[in-house]
Amino acid sequence: MLWDTLERVNKLRKQAITDPEFVESAKKHETAVKEQVNRTDSEYVRERKERRRKAFAQAYQSANFELYPTGRKH
Q1: Residue 40: phi, psi to the nearest 5?
Q2: What is the pLDDT of residue 11?
Q3: What is the end-to-end Cα distance of the chain in Å, rounded?
């Protein structure tokens, strides 16, 4: 049973390697993975902070903080 599965997987792997479309797709995937790995952590953190800033600004966009509901200043 295990040998049958291994033989079937090996046969399918050989077919995939001979398929030019698969090889091209694999190269694109490899390039994408390398780009993602090479990206520095600071860029990732910077992007996250920027997204968070935008989300926070959008959440309170319609709020008016100039009004004092109790009549007293904070």
Answers
A1: -75, 155
A2: 95
A3: 75
